[in-house]
Fold each of these.
Amino acid sequence: MRHFDLSPLYRSTVGFDKLFSMLDTASGVEGSASSYPPYNIERLAENSYRITMAVAGFTEEDLSIEVKENALTVIGEKASEAEGEKDYLHRGIAARAFERRFQLADYMRVDSASMEHGLLHVDLTRELPEAKKPRQIEIKGSGSSKTLEGTTH
């Protein structure tokens, strides 16, 4: 049987976690790979998420966050330092430019972004429109009325 590695999709999408969990369970796929800059995606509540990126060495002015259609893009570019300004004996803190894209599920909204201790936090919320939320449908008939639980699509 073929195994498909869905981890690249799982790491770059937010709000599709239930779908990917089902696919991972069905296919038995596990594992992850890292890339620069490292990041976490966590679920804070049922419809609330946080992306945390390790951006040591960057300031708020070096970072930009853009949401366009269903894509969240975080770009980091350091202001160029003058040549010969610093004489490094070892340079282990990466300060290279990056662009990280996250594909967002429908109805995801970016609430806020903050930076603390070299970590960039981007908070997101899934807001389903009223027409997409589960609701109860009343069944009318002769005699007594009953209700049927259902969802709209």
Amino acid sequence: MAEPERTDDGRYVLIDGRRWRATDPAIPEDRRAELTRVLMAWRREVRRTKDTDAEAASRAGVQAAKVALGERGTPWWEQSDDERRARWSADVAAPDPG
């Protein structure tokens, strides 16, 4: 899969003409991959729980994963190295498989 186009400053990716905050480039590759897997699992849960009482918890899981990746919350370029490391190191639970 080709990498999406980035803005000149590297802070955003451009997808279908829309600008989205890019994942923090300082996240170690293995942690980034793990957080991406968790994010995708939560996105599947959002689809599965649509219009049920569990949908809010699924959306909270998506939010937690996106914050850990630096795509939401305080922009990663405004955080110190220690703040960035704490953000991506925080425990982000995956949905229960059952």
Amino acid sequence: MEKNIIRIVKLIIGLFVYAVGVVMTINANLGLSPWDVFHQGLSGVINITLGQASIAVAFLITVLDIVLGQPIGWATIVNMLSIGTFMDILMINNLIPTANGLFTGLLMILLGLIVQGYGCWLYVNVGLGVGPRDGLMVILTKRTGKTVRFNKSVIELGAVIIGYLLGGSIGIGTVVMAFLGGPIFQLVFKTVNFNVEEVNHRFIQEDIRFLKEKLKSKEAN
């Protein structure tokens, strides 16, 4: 029980840290990340907050993950609900400063990506599944036989195009994040000696199977 509590606390902290990094890149005012271009465009069209748009998109992608056969974990559900909520709390209360120049904006983007990297390490390391968007990338890689980089690029390019058509903001920051996001995450993971492929995730399907076996065992007795 104590181990599970520690994992949950670490998960929540990691997702909050990740949200802080996301808001830092938004407040850099140099263009949004590929997914946030989509979130902003959607939020403007249906008149909801950026965080609520993030939750809505994450929900739809989670459903798509399940349909395509990608196992999801409890962290996937918590990720779907909490990052957007944390983003709204941070942005509505102006808890993250806003950049007002090119240099400070680029600095905020770089720091924001580093913060996201550490947040990702914290929540993925608990072994309760990955985020909806990462899950989509994984299952498409399995289904198409294409590389992770190819599928990630196609997904994010699609998000940028749709988001821009809906009114989302793009700029130099969008390009910087698209090219530097992966390398910075990799560098962050090296600083904590973290290998994503070594994490053994526990998925919701396993818990359901475990409960069914327990029920069968009780009925048999």
Amino acid sequence: MIKIARSYTGVPYRIGGNDEQGIDCSGLLCNTFKEFGIKLPRVSWQQSEFFPAIDIPNIRTGDLVFFSVNGKVVNHAGIVTEVRSEDEVIFIHASTSKGVIEDNMMTNYWKARFASACRPDFGK
């Protein structure tokens, strides 16, 4: 799953986008899971409710993470690509300014906007 998501690294951000010409955060998740025959909802707040929720101390590679960037509604999503320590949890997402990149979700910026996490169920 991580390999598929990383294949989009560097693709520019485009709202509503879902291909190599431009992609948004929920499109990145949709395209990644489509490779496994799983049809995720197209918007991030619905994606956040699709799989069972987990707590941050239990987070691991492959988990989905969701953020409220502009207020209280979940409007940003990513996939955890590496858990290096409790202070360094790397996730891939579609940044509006930098396209598809990996960031540490334990920075002050992302921690302040964290909304939830869930663990994919590939039997769904």
